[in-house]
Every structure is written in structure tokens, then in C-alpha cells.
């Protein structure tokens, strides 16, 4: 790593021990001075070696010379000066000062920073340094503030939407108690809207919100609430740029505003797969430090009419039926998915139809890879660049090139399917920490199309159970998986528009269901699509992936630090 010039270095008091504290452009480091070397310093600038220098994680160690900590400046949330009378100057919060240091070292400042906890959780930690002189204290505060002000990717003003009815209906409480205090600490101002009905956030974003004044949009809720924000922002961006969403071939314009998710829903799979955990404090901290994670978005069309966008799961058959059943049991909260999942598993319906898809052949990675999409993913960077340079099929808008010219690359599969799933990302969630497609990538411009053919209940159960274990859910004769850029699905019996209208009104056409089998002991003709947790009544759809259309306040799942394992060779 390039050596950074030291900006400040002093001996300061921390909890009655002296520390060598230094700041360069990248790290704030404090290292305990061994007892016999301790001496009072009013701010002598002197050279010493910083023992730890890891770029991403702050380290804590205890060597011969005492404990040592390093915090990346990019993960400092705030710095505030403490008053002599032990009251913070900035926000009026009272803090208890140790008696000894208030007497001898009356000036102090507190640095709030990100600390990594268990299983990808982040927490806010405080460290308070005491100084002999006010001027030195001021110098530290000003210098750290200067460093923070130079971090241009951090949001200053956010628009927040809270779904008070998502998940266990705790959205408002989670935001007020866990998130708002952190935003205040980091000097982020917010405009908060508590939604009053479904699609309130989507419509507000699409038509009314004055987006220019914000650095990002935050939703407090589940995947459905996130989906509302995506629809609002993507539609608004296309409208502002004169792009017609109804044309499946059109290249969409990426959204500039980043989206933050404070998880307060039932599945929270988008949060889980982009941050590594569904934890409100962790998500708030990723927003504060100004992380950015690009994400693919699928557009779903039917007969040249735009239906919806999807970022996680598009599922027909099993997941469509689970969702349709679970919507009638919202009162059960998140447990509705387990109940409806069990019920749908027992009904064991299969659906006939034709899937045609355009395999992504020019990219790095396959759905059977052992590597995973992680923070700074090389495959996403590589394939994202390829997409913008080569302008793949979905970007082609040349009216002279007819669809049939692409047909060469398309594959067609007819069959009876228990499930047809398109996972644009892993869909990892607490129910399945590796997800529906463990090797899928967040931002590679593709979706993993998983076809589960008709099989016995026992085999389907084996397939489902493998989502929760280390065994490969694709390594089964009745399952296939393809990494694709586009796909179409047509059910065996095509629906008329009047059938669709009835389905949209919630009336299922059981009279039409078993045309070929009047005894009606078999599967219905149609399922519906589960589009990120929203029901799509159309069975016939056309889907295309738009590479990196949106950005989240996230960085992808961080690899767990390995330095602890290295100390124990048996653990490797
Ligand atoms: C036997 C255990 C099998 C466990 C299999 C778990 C696979 C889970 C993969 C989940 C992928 C989820 C993708 C995300 C979808 C969300 O967008 C979407 C909306 O989320 P929101 O409500 O937060 O807004 N969520 C969903 O559609 C929920 C899907 C949940 C499916 C749960 C399925 C449970 C299956 C249980 C089968 C039990 C069989 C037992 C037989 C003895
Ligand atoms: N104020 C509201 N009243 C009713 N429904 C709402 C409200 N705000 C948002 N919704 C809708 O609630 C649905 C579920 O929201 P979500 O936050 O995803 O929770 P969950 O994860 O429990 O499904 C979404 O379809 C969203 O459009
Ligand atoms: Ca993808």
C-alpha cells in the first residue's frame, strides 16, 4: 500500500492509559505506550511506526507494546469535541468523563467509527481521547472533520420512506430507535415519509418528489417496499430521459440516486444478499459511509407492455403459488411463507409451458461456480464493462435489425415444471443463507434461470432441503440452470385477456384449468409469477436483464477476515 503522509501524531490519554495516536489520509491509529515509557505530552509531533496497516478492517491487537487499533478514515462516522464541563459541544448529548482525566486532561474529543461484529454485522463504537491543551484537541477535531468532509461519496440529505405495515410492523420503531440517532450523529438530514397505502412511495417518487435535493433514497421495510422504490426511481429516470419503458428492446438509463434498505420486512433478501445480514444498524452504517453497490434489474414485459421490474426472484410455479397463498395470510407475519410453503409443497402442482432463453456466452462465470459474488467482485466488474462496451442484445435498438436475427442464439425448452425461477442475485436470506442461486452475481448483467421439472414430492423436498445445506441443489437430474441475458415463458394454454382480467380481480379460473383432464385431479394450467414478492397475474412474460441499472448503499458481502484463522493452521 502506498505510504500516506502523516497529518497528525500525538500522545493522548485514553481511559487512563497513554496512546500514540496518529492520523494519515487513510487511517486513524492509536497504540498503547508501554507503562515504563509513559510520559505526558502536550502534543509533541514525533515519528513512530504504525504497526497495523490493513486497508479495509480496523485491527485490534496486543503485542509487546500494548494494544493497537486502526480505523479507516472512510469508516469514521463523526468526531465531536467534549466540553470541559463534560457536555458535548455539538449535539448537547451528555457523556460521563472519568474523574482522573477531567482534572488533569480537561480537553477531549470522541471519534465514532464502524466496528465489525459477528456475521457481517456492523456496530458504531466510540473512542474518547483526552488532551492537555484545548488547541491540540481543536486541531484533532478540525483535521478529522476536514478528512470526513473530503469524502464526497457520503450522503448529506436523504429521502426516507417507512412502510409501517411491513414484516412485524416494526418499521417506524426500528427507524426512530436504531437508525435516526445514527443519521443525526453523522450529520445527515432527512425528509421522512411514513407511507399511507401500498404504492404511496412509488407514486411519490415517480411524480412528485424533488429528487435534485437528495443524495439518496432510503426505504424502511421489506423486499416489496424496496421494489416500490426501484419502480419509482427507474420509471422517473426513464421519463426524465424520454425512454419508453414499454419497449422491451430499449436500453434503460441508469438511476443516479443510490437506494438504502433498512430491513423491516419478511424476507429481506435484497438486504441480506447485498450486505450479508438483515440488520438495521448495519444497513444504516453502510448508508452513512456512502457505500455503493451496482445492481442488475430485470424488466418484465407482456405483448410489448411493461409489467414490472425485478431485482431478486422471478418465480413461476412453486414460488408464485407460495406467494399467492401467503398474501391471504398477511396477518401471520413472516411465518406466512413457511405455512404457505408447506401447503404448496403438499399440493405439488406442475405447469406446462415453453421457456426460451438467450444464454450469456460471452461472460466470466457460470451458475455452478464455487466462487461467490463478494465485495469488489471481479466478475461483476469484468462483465459490467463488457456489457457497456459491447452493448449486448437487450441494448440494440436499431430498428433495421429484426428479432429473428438473434434467434440463432436462443434455446427453447418445453416441459412440465414444478418451478421456473430466475435469480438475478443469489437471493440469500435467513431461510437459505446461500440462496436460490449461490453463485449468481449482483451486477454482471445476467440472471440464473433455474428449471425444476416435474418430479416426485420426495425429490422436490430433497431439492428444497439442499438450499439449506452445503449440497448442490442443481446437481439433480430434474434440475437445470442457465445463466441468461433474456428469457421468455409461454404457458401451454395461452391465456385470453378476459382470463387475465378475471385473475387480476382475484378470481381464479378453475373452470378453465383442466381442459385436458376434466376429472380435475391434476395441476391447474397456470401459476402466477412471484416478482420480488409481488404477484404478476400474467403467465406469459418476456424478461431482459439491464446491467447495473441501480446502485445501493451497500458494498456486497465482505469476506470474513482470515487473520484470526491464520493463527490456527488447523482451521484452514
Ligand atoms: C424444507 C426447507 C426448504 C427451505 C427452502 C428455502 C428456499 C428459500 C429461498 C427463498 C428465496 C427468496 C427470494 C426472495 C423473495 C422475496 O422478494 C419475497 C418478498 O419478500 P418480502 O415479503 O420481504 O417483501 N419473498 C418471498 O417470495 C418468500 C419466499 C419464501 C419461500 C419460502 C419457502 C418455504 C418452503 C417450505 C417448504 C416446506 C416443505 C416441508 C415439507 C415437510
Ligand atoms: N402504508 C402501507 N399500507 C399498506 N401497504 C403498504 C404500505 N406501504 C407499503 N405497502 C405495501 O406493503 C407490501 C409489503 O411491504 P414490505 O415492506 O415488503 O413488507 P413484507 O416484507 O412484510 O412483505 C408492499 O407491497 C408495499 O407496496
Ligand atoms: Ca445478476
TrEMBL record:
One of its GO terms (cellular component) is membrane. One of its GO terms (molecular function) is ceramide kinase activity. Pfam families: CERK_C (PF19280), DAGK_cat (PF00781), PH_CERK (PF25382). Residues 153-304 form the DAGKc domain. InterPro entries: ATP-NAD_kinase_N (IPR017438), CERK_C (IPR045363), CERK_PH (IPR057465), Diacylglycerol_kinase_cat_dom (IPR001206), Lipid_Phosphate_FormReg (IPR050187), NAD/diacylglycerol_kinase_sf (IPR016064). GO terms for biological process: ceramide metabolic process. Gene3D superfamilies: 2.60.200.40, Probable inorganic polyphosphate/atp-NAD kinase, domain 1 (3.40.50.10330). This is DAGKc domain-containing protein. It comes from Coregonus suidteri.
